[in-house]
């Protein structure tokens, strides 16, 4: 037999550069455990169906055990000459156990093998990502609990809008990460069908038992169409879409942390262990981690776009283009997981300057909407109230004062319905505590949400 498992019909060897260019072993070697698990299930099934002898099965199973040990001990030499993880392991098996190894590939193709391995591997990675997401959620809930009463300015257009509680702001991200986890778990459900037995594209002439291999590998069942199973990669696109959305959420949080840590905001300080300095400017403490996480989002989204474009023009069934799938999704998941890990470890050490936040909320006329609401309660139509408060704000800007500092004369001069009692009652505390309904920013609501999240996250 020639060195290549497919070498029979070839007369001259592979071009040397092509050998390296064609290989995917650098990327797919990490799926070795899944490849071995798939081979074990396949061999057992072949034996049960009378396609493989018990003796051959025993040799295959113990051979695969030994190979698994070799890989784990770092003794296995992967070679680009054998292209990918599938052929590396199969060749090694044959080298170790002889003919039985050559029988393993009966009723199987690398096309269903790679689709199976990839689904198995990504299923495990999905679970790890979700676990990291849960950790970040727990950390944020804990911070929200500590800061249920901490008042900060809420922004729209990055301009001071209304006071909010920091707890409320942080819980907004807990909601986003919850939906992210949901997207990953949804993708996992659709991913969890077993392609094994689809063979190259059309199925196989052997009487295989696909239910058996699917069950043994923990799939919910076999895929229903062999062409679909070996040629679609929507499970990867879906995972990359979930990863991209999650990365966008992390990126927005990163952007806020970066802004809040600036000398102009000074709302927070991130722990030294997660920041770096400058080689020239001695005063610098840079928020590298949120910056890098914000940057990773671009790369993860790049993976999604690359995958969509790779598949969009491919005729059924397998095409070599598809080998590009793993690099994109592995890179994206590695970077997303790293980002989540950094946030889970960094956020508990974040220091919050509650006084500065409070001061920022108390300036910039964040209470203006509440003054308009007070006028409405006194019978003024909202549009007129809006106008009156607008004029009051203009007056305060001219006088360089805040709304609550307006005296009776100033109020009456703007509108007789505006009273010193109304402006005097304005405070950022009353603004937040008044928004006491489902989804509102009041400390009481934040506390209720925190305990709901604690219950939910405890059960996971
Ligand atoms: N290394 C290949 C990949 O990642 C495995 C499947 C190859 N199949 C084939 N017919 N060339 O897609």
From TrEMBL:
Molecular-function annotations in GO: argininosuccinate lyase activity
Keyword tRNA processing set for record: no
Location of the protein in the cell: Cytoplasm
Listed GO biological process terms: L-arginine biosynthetic process via ornithine
Highest rank taxon of the organism: Bacteria
Enzyme class: lyase
EC number: 4.3.2.1
Pathway(s) this gene product operates in, as recorded in its UniProt entry: Amino-acid biosynthesis; L-arginine biosynthesis; L-arginine from L-ornithine and carbamoyl phosphate: step 3/3
Catalytic activity field: 2-(N(omega)-L-arginino)succinate = fumarate + L-arginine
Assigned GO CC terms: cytosol
All copies of domain Argininosuccinate lyase C-terminal, residue ranges: 365-432
The entry's keywords: Amino-acid biosynthesis, Arginine biosynthesis, Cytoplasm, Lyase
InterPro entries noted in UniProt: Arg_succ_lyase_C, Argininosuccinate_lyase, Fumarase/histidase_N, Fumarate_lyase_CS, Fumarate_lyase_fam, Fumarate_lyase_N, L-Aspartase-like
Residue ranges of every copy of the Fumarate lyase N-terminal domain listed in the record: 8-302
Keyword Amino-acid biosynthesis: yes
Alphabetical list of HAMAP family matching this protein: Arg_succ_lyase
UniProt xrefs under NCBIfam families: argH (TIGR00838)
UniProt-recorded name of the protein: Argininosuccinate lyase
Organism name: Mariprofundus erugo
């Amino acid at each position: 037999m020639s060195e290549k498992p497919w070498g029979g019909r070839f007369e001259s060897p592979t071009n040397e550069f092509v050998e390296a260019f064609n290989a995917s072993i650098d990327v797919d070697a990490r799926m070795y455990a899944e490849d071995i698990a798939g081979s074990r299930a396949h061999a057992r099934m072949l034996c049960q169906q009378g396609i493989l002898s018990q003796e051959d099965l025993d040799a295959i199973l113990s051979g695969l055990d030994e190979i698994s040990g070799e890989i784990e001990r770092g003794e296995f030499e992967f070679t680009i000459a054998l292209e990918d993880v599938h052929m590396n392991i199969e060749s090694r098996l044959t080298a170790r156990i002889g003919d039985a190894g050559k029988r393993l590939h009966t009723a199987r193709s690398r096309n269903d093998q790679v689709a199976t391995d990839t689904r198995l591997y990504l299923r495990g990675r999905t679970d790890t990502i979700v676990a990291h997401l849960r950790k970040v959620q727990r950390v944020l809930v804990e911070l929200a609990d500590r800061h249920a009463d901490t008042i900060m300015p809420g922004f729209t257009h990055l301009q001071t809008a209304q006071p909010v509680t920091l707890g409320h702001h942080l819980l907004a991200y807990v909601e986003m990460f919850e939906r992210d986890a949901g997207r990953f778990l949804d993708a996992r459900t659709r991913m969890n069908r077993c392609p094994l037995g689809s063979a190259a594209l059309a199925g196989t002439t052997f009487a295989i038992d696909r239910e058996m291999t699917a069950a043994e590998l923990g799939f919910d069942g076999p895929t229903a169409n062999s062409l679909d199973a070996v040629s679609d990669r929507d499970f990867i696109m879906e995972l990359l879409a979930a990863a991209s959305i999650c990365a966008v959420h992390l990126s927005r949080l990163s952007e806020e942390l970066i802004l809040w840590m600036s000398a102009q905001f000074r709302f927070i300080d991130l722990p030294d262990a997660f920041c770096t300095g400058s080689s020239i400017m001695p005063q610098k403490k840079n928020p590298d981690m949120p910056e890098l996480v914000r940057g990773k989002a671009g790369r993860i989204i790049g993976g999604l776009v690359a995958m969509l474009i790779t598949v969009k023009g491919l005729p059924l069934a397998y095409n070599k283009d598809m080998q590009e799938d793993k690099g994109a999704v592995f890179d994206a998941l590695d970077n997303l997981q790293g980002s989540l890990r950094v946030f889970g470890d960094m956020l508990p050490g974040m220091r919050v300057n509650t006084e500065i936040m409070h001061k920022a909320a108390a300036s910039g006329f964040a209470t203006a909407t509440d003054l308009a609401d007070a006028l409405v309660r006194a019978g003024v139509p909202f549009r007129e109230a809006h106008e009156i408060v607008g004029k009051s704000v203009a007056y305060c800007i001219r006088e360089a004062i805040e709304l609550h500092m307006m005296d009776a004369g100033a109020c009456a001069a703007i509108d007789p319905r505006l009273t010193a009692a109304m402006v005097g009652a304005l405070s950022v505390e009353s603004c937040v505590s008044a928004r006491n309904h489902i989804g509102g920013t009041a400390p009481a609501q934040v506390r209720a949400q925190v305990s709901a999240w604690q219950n939910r996250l405890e059960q996971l």
